[in-house]
Write a structure and sequence with these properties.
This protein is 6% helix and 39% strand. The chain is mainly beta. A hairpin with a 2-residue loop joins strand 22 and strand 23. The radius of gyration is 21 Å and the shape is globular.
Protein backbone atom coordinates (compact mmCIF):
# COMPACT_ATOMS: atom_id res chain seq x y z
CA UNK A 1 0.00 0.00 0.00
CA UNK A 2 1.39 3.40 -0.97
CA UNK A 3 1.16 5.91 1.90
CA UNK A 4 -1.03 8.96 1.46
CA UNK A 5 0.94 11.83 0.02
CA UNK A 6 1.03 15.22 1.66
CA UNK A 7 0.37 18.16 -0.63
CA UNK A 8 3.38 19.41 -2.56
CA UNK A 9 3.75 23.14 -1.91
CA UNK A 10 6.74 23.64 -4.21
CA UNK A 11 8.02 22.05 -7.38
CA UNK A 12 11.11 19.95 -6.92
CA UNK A 13 14.55 21.46 -7.33
CA UNK A 14 16.08 21.53 -10.80
CA UNK A 15 19.77 21.71 -11.64
CA UNK A 16 19.44 25.46 -12.30
CA UNK A 17 18.23 25.99 -8.71
CA UNK A 18 21.62 25.00 -7.25
CA UNK A 19 24.52 27.33 -6.51
CA UNK A 20 28.00 26.14 -5.65
CA UNK A 21 28.95 27.51 -2.23
CA UNK A 22 32.28 25.67 -1.82
CA UNK A 23 34.83 24.28 -4.27
CA UNK A 24 38.34 22.82 -4.24
CA UNK A 25 37.83 21.33 -0.77
CA UNK A 26 36.70 24.70 0.65
CA UNK A 27 40.01 26.07 -0.60
CA UNK A 28 42.10 22.99 0.33
CA UNK A 29 41.93 20.22 -2.29
CA UNK A 30 43.09 17.60 0.22
CA UNK A 31 39.58 17.88 1.74
CA UNK A 32 38.22 14.97 -0.30
CA UNK A 33 35.00 13.99 1.48
CA UNK A 34 32.36 16.25 3.03
CA UNK A 35 31.78 13.17 5.15
CA UNK A 36 29.25 14.60 7.60
CA UNK A 37 26.79 17.45 7.66
CA UNK A 38 24.28 18.94 10.11
CA UNK A 39 22.20 22.09 10.56
CA UNK A 40 23.15 23.45 14.00
CA UNK A 41 22.82 26.90 15.60
CA UNK A 42 21.47 28.32 12.30
CA UNK A 43 24.61 27.26 10.44
CA UNK A 44 25.58 24.41 8.13
CA UNK A 45 28.31 22.33 9.80
CA UNK A 46 30.50 20.11 7.59
CA UNK A 47 33.10 17.55 8.67
CA UNK A 48 35.78 16.55 6.15
CA UNK A 49 38.00 13.54 5.58
CA UNK A 50 41.43 14.13 4.10
CA UNK A 51 43.06 12.73 0.94
CA UNK A 52 41.21 9.41 0.87
CA UNK A 53 42.94 8.19 -2.27
CA UNK A 54 46.35 8.55 -0.64
CA UNK A 55 45.03 6.51 2.29
CA UNK A 56 43.68 3.86 -0.08
CA UNK A 57 47.00 3.63 -1.90
CA UNK A 58 48.43 1.51 0.91
CA UNK A 59 45.43 -0.85 0.88
CA UNK A 60 44.57 -3.98 -1.07
CA UNK A 61 42.75 -1.86 -3.66
CA UNK A 62 46.06 -0.67 -5.14
CA UNK A 63 46.82 -4.18 -6.40
CA UNK A 64 44.01 -3.85 -8.98
CA UNK A 65 45.08 -0.44 -10.32
CA UNK A 66 47.42 0.15 -13.24
CA UNK A 67 48.19 3.75 -12.29
CA UNK A 68 47.33 5.69 -9.17
CA UNK A 69 44.82 8.51 -9.80
CA UNK A 70 46.47 11.23 -7.72
CA UNK A 71 49.98 12.15 -6.69
CA UNK A 72 50.78 10.88 -3.20
CA UNK A 73 53.94 10.87 -1.07
CA UNK A 74 55.51 7.53 -0.12
CA UNK A 75 54.55 8.21 3.50
CA UNK A 76 50.98 9.48 3.68
CA UNK A 77 51.53 11.43 6.90
CA UNK A 78 53.96 13.71 5.12
CA UNK A 79 50.67 15.35 4.13
CA UNK A 80 48.59 17.32 6.60
CA UNK A 81 45.96 14.63 7.19
CA UNK A 82 44.22 16.37 10.09
CA UNK A 83 40.44 16.32 9.61
CA UNK A 84 38.54 19.59 9.67
CA UNK A 85 35.13 20.92 10.73
CA UNK A 86 33.74 23.94 8.89
CA UNK A 87 30.66 26.10 9.23
CA UNK A 88 28.71 28.04 6.63
CA UNK A 89 26.41 30.92 7.55
CA UNK A 90 24.04 31.68 4.66
CA UNK A 91 23.11 35.06 6.15
CA UNK A 92 26.57 36.44 6.91
CA UNK A 93 28.91 36.01 3.95
CA UNK A 94 32.35 37.09 5.05
CA UNK A 95 35.19 37.06 2.53
CA UNK A 96 35.08 36.95 -1.25
CA UNK A 97 35.07 34.31 -3.95
CA UNK A 98 33.26 30.97 -4.18
CA UNK A 99 34.31 29.93 -0.67
CA UNK A 100 32.91 33.08 0.95
CA UNK A 101 30.86 32.52 4.08
CA UNK A 102 32.93 29.59 5.38
CA UNK A 103 34.76 29.46 8.69
CA UNK A 104 37.22 26.76 9.80
CA UNK A 105 36.07 25.87 13.32
CA UNK A 106 38.16 22.85 14.21
CA UNK A 107 41.18 20.90 13.07
CA UNK A 108 42.15 17.53 14.54
CA UNK A 109 45.05 17.71 16.99
CA UNK A 110 48.21 15.66 16.51
CA UNK A 111 49.03 12.73 18.81
CA UNK A 112 52.16 10.71 19.41
CA UNK A 113 52.01 6.99 18.61
CA UNK A 114 55.37 5.33 19.17
CA UNK A 115 57.85 7.18 16.97
CA UNK A 116 55.13 8.64 14.76
CA UNK A 117 53.33 11.95 15.00
CA UNK A 118 49.84 11.29 13.66
CA UNK A 119 46.56 13.14 13.34
CA UNK A 120 44.17 12.03 16.04
CA UNK A 121 41.42 12.06 13.38
CA UNK A 122 41.62 11.63 9.62
CA UNK A 123 37.94 12.34 9.13
CA UNK A 124 34.62 13.19 10.70
CA UNK A 125 32.35 10.54 9.27
CA UNK A 126 29.04 11.31 10.95
CA UNK A 127 27.33 13.93 13.09
CA UNK A 128 23.99 14.63 14.70
CA UNK A 129 22.22 17.10 16.98
CA UNK A 130 21.25 15.47 20.31
CA UNK A 131 20.45 16.47 23.87
CA UNK A 132 21.41 13.88 26.48
CA UNK A 133 20.37 13.67 30.11
CA UNK A 134 23.36 15.77 31.26
CA UNK A 135 23.44 18.20 28.33
CA UNK A 136 22.26 21.68 29.23
CA UNK A 137 21.20 22.31 25.61
CA UNK A 138 21.20 20.67 22.20
CA UNK A 139 24.73 19.57 21.34
CA UNK A 140 26.54 18.54 18.18
CA UNK A 141 27.94 15.01 18.42
CA UNK A 142 30.58 13.93 15.89
CA UNK A 143 31.79 10.44 14.88
CA UNK A 144 35.46 10.17 13.95
CA UNK A 145 37.83 8.20 11.69
CA UNK A 146 41.26 7.54 13.23
CA UNK A 147 44.56 6.27 11.78
CA UNK A 148 45.07 2.52 12.16
CA UNK A 149 48.21 3.09 14.26
CA UNK A 150 46.63 5.71 16.53
CA UNK A 151 44.47 5.36 19.63
CA UNK A 152 41.13 4.37 18.09
CA UNK A 153 37.97 6.24 17.20
CA UNK A 154 36.41 8.92 19.40
CA UNK A 155 33.09 10.73 19.76
CA UNK A 156 33.32 14.51 20.01
CA UNK A 157 30.75 16.86 21.52
CA UNK A 158 30.19 20.59 21.06
CA UNK A 159 27.76 23.14 22.47
CA UNK A 160 28.49 25.74 19.82
CA UNK A 161 29.88 23.84 16.80
CA UNK A 162 33.22 25.57 17.23
CA UNK A 163 34.98 23.96 20.18
CA UNK A 164 34.91 20.21 20.74
CA UNK A 165 35.63 17.79 23.56
CA UNK A 166 35.98 14.02 23.68
CA UNK A 167 33.36 12.04 25.55
CA UNK A 168 33.82 8.54 27.05
CA UNK A 169 33.55 5.65 24.61
CA UNK A 170 31.57 2.43 25.18
CA UNK A 171 33.54 -0.26 27.02
CA UNK A 172 33.52 -2.54 23.99
CA UNK A 173 35.58 -0.07 21.95
CA UNK A 174 39.32 -0.64 22.02
CA UNK A 175 41.90 1.10 19.87
CA UNK A 176 41.40 -1.43 17.07
CA UNK A 177 38.02 0.22 16.31
CA UNK A 178 39.16 3.08 14.10
CA UNK A 179 35.95 4.56 12.75
CA UNK A 180 32.31 5.30 13.49
CA UNK A 181 29.71 6.18 10.88
CA UNK A 182 26.56 6.34 13.00
CA UNK A 183 25.23 8.62 15.73
CA UNK A 184 21.45 8.21 15.72
CA UNK A 185 19.06 9.94 18.18
CA UNK A 186 15.86 8.02 18.99
CA UNK A 187 13.42 8.28 21.91
CA UNK A 188 15.80 10.43 23.96
CA UNK A 189 18.74 8.06 23.49
CA UNK A 190 21.81 8.06 21.26
CA UNK A 191 22.69 4.92 19.29
CA UNK A 192 26.01 4.03 17.67
CA UNK A 193 27.93 1.05 16.30
CA UNK A 194 31.58 0.40 15.32
CA UNK A 195 32.11 0.71 11.57
CA UNK A 196 35.75 -0.22 10.80
CA UNK A 197 38.69 -1.97 12.39
CA UNK A 198 42.46 -1.51 12.11
CA UNK A 199 44.10 -4.11 9.91
CA UNK A 200 40.75 -4.95 8.37
CA UNK A 201 38.31 -2.77 6.48
CA UNK A 202 37.06 0.75 7.24
CA UNK A 203 33.53 -0.46 6.41
CA UNK A 204 33.47 -3.89 8.07
CA UNK A 205 34.25 -3.91 11.78
CA UNK A 206 33.40 -7.57 12.32
CA UNK A 207 31.43 -6.31 15.33
CA UNK A 208 27.71 -5.96 14.60
CA UNK A 209 26.94 -4.54 18.04
CA UNK A 210 24.77 -1.51 18.78
CA UNK A 211 25.44 0.70 21.79
CA UNK A 212 22.89 3.02 23.41
CA UNK A 213 23.03 5.82 25.99
CA UNK A 214 20.70 8.50 27.30
CA UNK A 215 23.71 10.23 28.90
CA UNK A 216 26.69 9.79 26.55
CA UNK A 217 28.67 12.69 27.98
CA UNK A 218 29.07 10.62 31.17
CA UNK A 219 29.86 7.40 29.32
CA UNK A 220 26.73 5.52 30.32
CA UNK A 221 26.64 3.16 27.35
CA UNK A 222 24.92 -0.23 27.18
CA UNK A 223 24.68 -2.97 24.57
CA UNK A 224 21.37 -2.64 22.70
CA UNK A 225 21.25 -5.88 20.67
CA UNK A 226 22.32 -9.52 20.82
CA UNK A 227 25.78 -9.93 19.20
CA UNK A 228 25.36 -9.77 15.41
CA UNK A 229 21.63 -10.41 16.01
CA UNK A 230 22.62 -14.05 16.50
CA UNK A 231 23.94 -14.35 12.92
CA UNK A 232 27.75 -14.27 12.50
CA UNK A 233 27.36 -13.38 8.81
CA UNK A 234 26.43 -9.87 9.94
CA UNK A 235 29.84 -8.17 9.85
CA UNK A 236 28.73 -4.71 10.94
CA UNK A 237 25.88 -2.24 11.32
CA UNK A 238 26.25 0.22 8.48
CA UNK A 239 23.13 2.35 8.80
CA UNK A 240 20.43 3.15 11.38
CA UNK A 241 17.41 5.44 11.59
CA UNK A 242 14.33 6.07 13.69
CA UNK A 243 10.99 5.63 11.93
CA UNK A 244 7.67 5.69 13.74
CA UNK A 245 7.84 3.61 16.90
CA UNK A 246 10.95 1.66 15.82
CA UNK A 247 14.65 2.14 15.34
CA UNK A 248 15.92 0.32 12.25
CA UNK A 249 19.40 -1.14 11.71
CA UNK A 250 20.81 -2.19 8.33
CA UNK A 251 23.69 -4.64 8.33
CA UNK A 252 26.73 -5.18 6.13
CA UNK A 253 26.54 -8.86 5.15
CA UNK A 254 28.52 -10.41 2.31
CA UNK A 255 25.65 -12.71 1.32
CA UNK A 256 23.03 -9.95 1.40
CA UNK A 257 22.08 -7.25 3.91
CA UNK A 258 19.57 -7.64 6.70
CA UNK A 259 17.29 -5.00 8.25
CA UNK A 260 16.24 -5.31 11.89
CA UNK A 261 14.03 -3.12 14.04
CA UNK A 262 13.25 -2.56 17.71
CA UNK A 263 10.94 -0.39 19.77
CA UNK A 264 13.93 0.20 22.08
CA UNK A 265 11.78 0.01 25.19
CA UNK A 266 12.63 -1.36 28.62
CA UNK A 267 16.19 -2.12 29.72
CA UNK A 268 18.71 -3.01 26.98
CA UNK A 269 19.54 -5.25 25.24
CA UNK A 270 16.23 -4.74 23.45
CA UNK A 271 14.04 -7.14 21.55
CA UNK A 272 14.67 -6.96 17.78
CA UNK A 273 12.82 -8.43 14.81
CA UNK A 274 14.23 -9.10 11.36
CA UNK A 275 12.10 -7.74 8.52
CA UNK A 276 14.52 -8.01 5.54
CA UNK A 277 17.18 -10.65 4.89
CA UNK A 278 19.26 -12.06 2.02
CA UNK A 279 19.59 -8.57 0.55
CA UNK A 280 15.81 -8.45 -0.05
CA UNK A 281 16.27 -11.76 -1.93
CA UNK A 282 18.96 -10.37 -4.24
CA UNK A 283 21.81 -11.91 -2.27
CA UNK A 284 25.39 -10.65 -2.32
CA UNK A 285 24.71 -7.90 -4.87
CA UNK A 286 22.84 -6.12 -2.07
CA UNK A 287 25.85 -6.30 0.24
CA UNK A 288 25.02 -3.46 2.60
CA UNK A 289 22.46 -0.81 3.46
CA UNK A 290 24.18 2.44 2.49
CA UNK A 291 21.35 4.89 3.29
CA UNK A 292 18.01 5.23 5.05
CA UNK A 293 15.47 8.04 4.77
CA UNK A 294 11.93 8.59 6.03
CA UNK A 295 9.63 10.26 3.52
CA UNK A 296 5.85 10.68 3.58
CA UNK A 297 5.19 7.94 6.11
CA UNK A 298 7.50 5.27 4.72
CA UNK A 299 11.13 4.22 5.14
CA UNK A 300 13.43 4.03 2.09
CA UNK A 301 16.58 1.90 2.12
CA UNK A 302 19.33 2.29 -0.47
CA UNK A 303 21.88 -0.45 -1.03
CA UNK A 304 25.42 -0.75 -2.30
CA UNK A 305 28.56 -2.85 -2.66
CA UNK A 306 31.57 -1.57 -0.72
CA UNK A 307 34.57 0.06 -2.43
CA UNK A 308 32.39 1.95 -4.88
CA UNK A 309 30.23 -0.85 -6.22
CA UNK A 310 33.09 -3.20 -7.12
CA UNK A 311 34.34 -5.16 -4.10
CA UNK A 312 37.64 -6.44 -5.42
CA UNK A 313 38.48 -8.15 -2.13
CA UNK A 314 35.47 -10.50 -2.23
CA UNK A 315 34.95 -10.44 -6.00
CA UNK A 316 31.44 -8.97 -5.74
CA UNK A 317 30.14 -6.70 -8.49
CA UNK A 318 30.06 -4.57 -10.44
CA UNK A 319 26.34 -4.20 -9.94
CA UNK A 320 24.01 -1.24 -9.52
CA UNK A 321 22.29 -0.66 -6.16
CA UNK A 322 18.63 -1.13 -5.36
CA UNK A 323 16.07 0.96 -3.49
CA UNK A 324 13.34 -0.58 -1.35
CA UNK A 325 10.48 0.97 0.63
CA UNK A 326 9.37 -0.35 4.02
CA UNK A 327 5.98 0.31 5.59
CA UNK A 328 5.32 0.55 9.32
CA UNK A 329 3.72 -2.91 9.27
CA UNK A 330 7.02 -4.40 8.05
CA UNK A 331 5.93 -5.04 4.46
CA UNK A 332 8.16 -3.81 1.66
CA UNK A 333 8.18 -2.78 -2.00
CA UNK A 334 10.93 -2.90 -4.58
CA UNK A 335 11.30 0.62 -5.98
CA UNK A 336 14.50 0.46 -8.08
CA UNK A 337 15.97 -2.96 -8.89
CA UNK A 338 15.70 -6.31 -10.60
CA UNK A 339 12.34 -8.12 -10.86
CA UNK A 340 12.32 -11.39 -8.89
CA UNK A 341 10.31 -13.93 -7.01
CA UNK A 342 10.54 -13.64 -3.22
CA UNK A 343 8.98 -15.26 -0.17
CA UNK A 344 6.53 -12.34 -0.31
CA UNK A 345 5.61 -13.01 -3.92
CA UNK A 346 6.75 -11.44 -7.18
CA UNK A 347 8.44 -8.08 -6.78
CA UNK A 348 8.59 -5.68 -9.73
CA UNK A 349 10.35 -2.30 -9.48
CA UNK A 350 7.58 0.24 -9.02
CA UNK A 351 9.68 2.95 -10.64
CA UNK A 352 10.38 0.70 -13.67
CA UNK A 353 14.09 1.48 -13.15
CA UNK A 354 16.55 -1.40 -13.02
CA UNK A 355 19.45 -1.34 -10.49
CA UNK A 356 21.42 1.89 -10.30
CA UNK A 357 18.69 3.78 -12.21
CA UNK A 358 19.84 1.72 -15.18
CA UNK A 359 23.58 2.41 -14.71
CA UNK A 360 26.05 -0.26 -13.62
CA UNK A 361 28.42 2.58 -12.71
CA UNK A 362 26.24 3.76 -9.84
CA UNK A 363 27.85 1.79 -7.01
CA UNK A 364 25.84 3.12 -4.06
CA UNK A 365 22.63 4.89 -3.33
CA UNK A 366 24.81 6.79 -0.89
CA UNK A 367 22.60 9.39 0.71
CA UNK A 368 18.92 10.45 0.76
CA UNK A 369 17.04 13.42 2.20
CA UNK A 370 13.41 14.50 2.39
CA UNK A 371 13.17 18.21 1.57
CA UNK A 372 10.10 20.38 0.86
CA UNK A 373 7.90 17.40 0.05
CA UNK A 374 10.42 15.66 -2.22
CA UNK A 375 12.73 12.71 -1.67
CA UNK A 376 16.25 13.29 -3.03
CA UNK A 377 18.73 10.49 -3.67
CA UNK A 378 22.45 10.84 -4.46
CA UNK A 379 24.70 8.16 -5.95
CA UNK A 380 28.36 7.27 -6.22
CA UNK A 381 29.48 6.81 -9.85
CA UNK A 382 32.70 4.80 -10.08
CA UNK A 383 33.30 5.35 -13.81
CA UNK A 384 35.73 8.15 -12.92
CA UNK A 385 38.18 5.40 -11.85
CA UNK A 386 38.12 3.59 -15.22
CA UNK A 387 41.26 5.24 -16.67
CA UNK A 388 43.32 3.90 -13.75
CA UNK A 389 42.03 0.32 -13.54
CA UNK A 390 43.33 -2.80 -15.24
CA UNK A 391 41.32 -3.26 -18.42
CA UNK A 392 41.87 -7.01 -18.22
CA UNK A 393 39.67 -7.10 -15.08
CA UNK A 394 36.67 -5.54 -16.84
CA UNK A 395 33.74 -7.70 -18.00
CA UNK A 396 34.23 -8.61 -21.65
CA UNK A 397 31.14 -6.81 -22.97
CA UNK A 398 32.07 -3.61 -21.14
CA UNK A 399 35.67 -3.78 -22.37
CA UNK A 400 34.63 -4.27 -25.99
CA UNK A 401 32.06 -1.47 -25.77
CA UNK A 402 34.54 1.01 -24.34
CA UNK A 403 37.13 0.07 -26.94
CA UNK A 404 34.63 0.86 -29.72
CA UNK A 405 33.26 4.02 -28.15
CA UNK A 406 36.53 5.42 -26.78
CA UNK A 407 37.25 5.79 -23.06
CA UNK A 408 37.61 9.57 -23.05
CA UNK A 409 34.42 10.03 -25.06
CA UNK A 410 32.60 7.70 -22.70
CA UNK A 411 33.87 9.53 -19.62
CA UNK A 412 32.68 12.86 -21.01
CA UNK A 413 29.06 11.68 -21.10
CA UNK A 414 29.03 9.28 -18.12
CA UNK A 415 31.24 10.39 -15.24
CA UNK A 416 29.95 12.24 -12.21
CA UNK A 417 27.54 11.44 -9.38
CA UNK A 418 23.82 11.51 -10.02
CA UNK A 419 21.03 13.24 -8.08
CA UNK A 420 17.42 12.10 -8.46
CA UNK A 421 14.15 13.26 -6.89
CA UNK A 422 10.65 11.90 -6.37
CA UNK A 423 7.51 13.21 -4.68
CA UNK A 424 5.79 9.84 -4.23
CA UNK A 425 8.83 7.55 -4.04
CA UNK A 426 7.91 5.78 -7.27
CA UNK A 427 8.16 8.33 -10.07
CA UNK A 428 11.78 9.52 -10.24
CA UNK A 429 13.31 12.39 -12.18
CA UNK A 430 17.00 13.18 -12.64
CA UNK A 431 18.11 16.52 -11.22
CA UNK A 432 21.59 15.98 -12.69
CA UNK A 433 23.57 12.95 -13.89
CA UNK A 434 27.03 14.47 -14.42
CA UNK A 435 28.35 15.61 -11.04
CA UNK A 436 26.91 19.11 -11.46
CA UNK A 437 29.30 19.69 -14.36
CA UNK A 438 32.43 18.26 -12.70
CA UNK A 439 33.34 14.70 -13.72
CA UNK A 440 35.52 14.38 -10.59
CA UNK A 441 32.50 14.91 -8.30
CA UNK A 442 32.01 11.17 -8.20
CA UNK A 443 29.81 10.73 -5.13
CA UNK A 444 27.10 12.51 -3.13
CA UNK A 445 27.95 11.66 0.48
CA UNK A 446 25.86 14.28 2.29
CA UNK A 447 22.40 15.76 1.76
CA UNK A 448 21.07 18.16 4.39
CA UNK A 449 17.72 19.94 4.41
CA UNK A 450 18.09 23.50 5.74
CA UNK A 451 15.78 26.53 6.02
CA UNK A 452 17.78 28.02 3.14
CA UNK A 453 17.62 25.06 0.78
CA UNK A 454 19.02 21.57 0.20
CA UNK A 455 22.77 21.26 0.78
CA UNK A 456 24.55 18.69 -1.41
CA UNK A 457 28.06 17.50 -0.50
CA UNK A 458 30.09 16.01 -3.36
CA UNK A 459 32.98 13.64 -2.73
CA UNK A 460 35.92 14.61 -4.95
CA UNK A 461 39.28 13.02 -4.01
CA UNK A 462 40.99 13.89 -7.31
CA UNK A 463 43.21 16.69 -6.09
CA UNK A 464 45.32 18.59 -5.90
CA UNK A 465 47.33 16.78 -8.64
CA UNK A 466 45.82 14.14 -10.89
CA UNK A 467 47.33 11.53 -13.18
CA UNK A 468 46.61 12.03 -16.87
CA UNK A 469 47.70 10.21 -20.01
CA UNK A 470 48.75 6.60 -20.57
CA UNK A 471 51.92 4.57 -20.92
CA UNK A 472 55.07 6.69 -20.98
CA UNK A 473 52.93 9.83 -21.28
CA UNK A 474 51.28 9.29 -17.89
CA UNK A 475 52.12 12.20 -15.56
CA UNK A 476 50.62 14.20 -12.70
CA UNK A 477 49.18 17.66 -13.32
CA UNK A 478 47.40 20.27 -11.21
CA UNK A 479 43.66 19.62 -11.19
CA UNK A 480 41.62 22.85 -10.97
CA UNK A 481 38.49 20.75 -10.39
CA UNK A 482 39.81 18.62 -7.48
CA UNK A 483 38.58 18.69 -3.88
CA UNK A 484 35.10 18.29 -2.43
CA UNK A 485 32.31 20.63 -3.47
CA UNK A 486 29.15 21.78 -1.70
CA UNK A 487 26.08 23.14 -3.45
CA UNK A 488 22.92 24.75 -2.07
CA UNK A 489 19.58 24.39 -3.87
CA UNK A 490 16.57 26.64 -3.43
CA UNK A 491 13.79 27.67 -5.82
CA UNK A 492 14.93 30.21 -8.40
CA UNK A 493 11.79 32.31 -8.07
CA UNK A 494 10.36 33.49 -4.74
CA UNK A 495 7.18 31.61 -3.96
CA UNK A 496 7.78 29.09 -6.74
Amino acid sequence: MVPAQKQITRPGLARADFTRIARNGIGDAYNSYPHSMAWFRDRLIVGTTRSNLCLFKVSKIKKRMDRWPIECPDYVYDLDMRAQIWEYDPLHQEGTGENAGWRLNWRSPHIQSGDETLPRELGYRGMCVFRGASDEDDCLYVATYAPARAHGTRILRSLDGRSFEEIPMPEGFDKSIITLRLLIPFKGKLFTSPTGRAGGDPNLSGNASIYVSDDPVNGKWQIANPPAFGDPSNLGIFEMIGFGDYIYAGTATLNGFQIWRSRAEGPPPYHWERIIFDGAFRGSLNQGVASFCVHNGALYAGGGIQHGGVDMVTGTGPAGPELIRIQEDGSWDLIVGSPRYTMDGMKMPKSAFRPGFGSIFNGYFWRMASHDGWLYLGTLDWSTMLPYSEMGNWPGAMRRGLERFGLEEFMAVQSGAELFRSADGENWLPVDRRGFGNRYNYGIRTLQSTPHGLAVGFVNPFGPRIGLGSGEDFAYHDNPDGGCEIWLGSPSKPGA
